[in-house]
Every structure is written in C-alpha cells, then in structure tokens.
Amino acid sequence: MKAIVVGAGIAGASAAFHLVEFGAEVSVIDNNATGRATLAGAGIICPWLSHNRDRHYQELSFAAFRYYPGLLARLAAAGQSNIEYDLVGGLAVGESRQQLDPVVRRLENHLTNGVKEVGEVRVLDQGGPKRLFPYLDSRLAGVYLSGAARLSGESVRTALLDAACASGVELLSGEAVLEQSGKTVTGIRIDGELIAADVVVLAAGAWSVNLCRPLRLELALEAQRGQILHLKVPDANTGKYPVIVPVLNDYYLLAFRDSRIVIGATRETGSGFDARVTAGGVAEVLRECLEIAPGLSTATLAEIRVGLRPMSNDGLPLLGRPRGVDRLVVATGMGRYGLTVGPYVGRLAAQIAVGQTPEIDVGAFTPER
Asked: Among candidates 118, 84, 88, 107, which has minimal Cα distance to 242?
C-alpha cells in the first residue's frame, strides 16, 4: 500500500510512524508554514482536568495518555533518545480550598471509576503550591495530582519523523494539492508533479480546510492564534516543578529542565492564518500569569512562540473517512489538546488508512459533521 501523509505536525508524524509499522510505503509532505501548532504547544498532558468534558473526547484523551509510555519506549528502542517527557505531577491553584472543591470531586470521581493514572491527589492549604512551584503567589491554595506529565511536543514530533524516515519514509517539502478522480482521491500534486497513492492522510492542521475545498468537503474548522511566552530564570532545579494546570482560568505555567518556564496562552478566535506576535497578546499572557506567579516578574523574556490551533466548531477532533470521498482519511481539529491526543490520533488515522478497525469508537469524530 502506498500512503501519503499531508502535514508533519505531531499527528501527521505519528500517522507516518504507524503507517510504516503497518507495512505501508509512506511519503510525508509538509509546507513548513509559520504557525505550526506543535512547535508552540505548551506540553501539559493532564486529561483528567480538561475543559472538554464530552464523553467521547474523554475516552480519546484517557486512551491517549495511556498510550504515551509505550510509544516513547518504542521510540527509545529505535534510537530516539532526545525526547523530553516527564511525569512531574500537576497543580490546580485557587484562592481557597473551597474554591477548589469541584476539582477534588472530579479527580476523586475518576479514581472511583478506576482511572488509576490520576495518581495521588492532595489538597494543599494556602502557601502549599508555592512550596512546589516557588514563583507562585504564597496566598494560593491548590490541588496536587501525581498523574500529570510535561513534554516538548517538538521533541516527540521530531523523534516520530526521524524514526519513520529511518524506516524508509520519504519526507518532502512543498505545497500539496489533493488530486481526485470523481469522488476518489488518487494522490497529491506537489510543485505540479503527481504522486499517486492508495490513501491520503490529511493531517495539515488548520490548513486542512483549504486543501479539502476543491473536493467540495467543508471542514467545520478554523485557525485560532495562540501566543506563548518562554521565560528564563536563575533556578537550576526547574525540571522538578509540577505543571500548573489551567482549571479555574485558561492560563498555565510549566517548567523545563533548562531553567525555562513557559507561560500562556492566548486564544484568539478569528485570527485566521495571522501568526504575528502582538503587543496585546504578550501583555495579556504576562498580566494573567504574573497574577498567580508574581515571582516571575524578574524573569528574562527569552522567546515568544505563535501557533495556529486547528479548532473545530464543537471542540472534538475531525478524524476518519469523510462520506462521499474515497481513499481520504482526515486527522485534525485537536485544538488546544493537540499534544495530549496527537500521537494517538495519528495511530488511529493510520489504522483507518490501512483498513483496520480503530482501537476506540471514532464515530463521534466524523470529519464532515
């Protein structure tokens, strides 16, 4: 089987990795456009406290969390040793323990239902969160859970692509156009050259909308700009800090091993494909995050990243074979949770592409809904 994957973000890289494992001959095409969501994604993996409470998304995200350790072990066995993934635990913070009661009940409900990956849950009085993440306001209370991970999405994406290429996957750069004959996708054109395929996996993020229009397939999807800030601090032990999970608001903090703390992010619906850094966006992130972490006010602003999240209308991914179009699999629309579910969505897309039954029911994610 000849398969083409359009898009080399984390979902597309995963689809290519799994397709070659399933025995397909694979080419990956990417346009290297500014605004790749994977590069700008923060890297908090904690589906137990997701804002999206849809039961279909919950099943997907829980399975995706459980899939990560085995996938990373396979990548390590393939020689990919530069992946940044650590189970560091998470913190939800608030002004009082009472304000955090719904968070506690939600986590306890997961544990009651057998979701052991939530791990240990502890309620922290005011000042407790600051002892775990020193830059936080000392007046904050919190809920700690051990089952939260931090990762560099770009390190996972690169590892998936490198492992896939080492197994024979061809990586091409350019603007892809879907080629069709009647209702059947027959391959892609890149720089005018036709590359035929038995199946095309479309994992081009927000750019998937424009690629599908010539097929008369309208995806309910739009780009949402997210601006995210990277700070440098003098502390050398940042790699041990838990992630600050955005539960009571939309803002998060997480620390990496290299004295780097990431804060964000804006959610700018209606941005289109404008991947600029804006003064207002930077001011918003700083204002909101410094309110809970005033200790970061003297940190060095080292980098600003901008990602264009592919946001579906209902908050669920677009995954599967669209009705009325043959030999096409769509895998996009993961929005703000792309790093959580992207590798697993790539696996499911690969299973669909080679004719396997997906491990979970993906009926709620039909691309044309």
From this structure: 88
Q: Is the pTM of this model over 0.85?
A: yes
Summarised one tens digit per residue, pLDDT across range 113-129 is 999 999 999 999 999 99
Closest-CA residue to 18 (of 70, 85, 60, 83)? 70
pLDDT tens column, 150-188? 999 999 999 999 999 999 999 999 999 999 999 999 999
What is 86-149+222-312's CATH number, 3.40.50.300, 3.30.9.10, 3.30.930.10, 3.40.190.10?
A: 3.30.9.10
Contacts of residue 52, defined as CB under 8 A and 6 or more positions apart, other chains included, come to 58, 61, 315, 316, 337
Instruction: Return the bridge partners of 44, or none.
Output: 150
Residue 337 CA to residue 355 CA, distance in Å, equals: 26
| Fold classification of 2-43+154-220+314-365 (topology level) | FAD/NAD(P)-binding domain (3.50.50)
> Which tokens go with 137?
């306001």
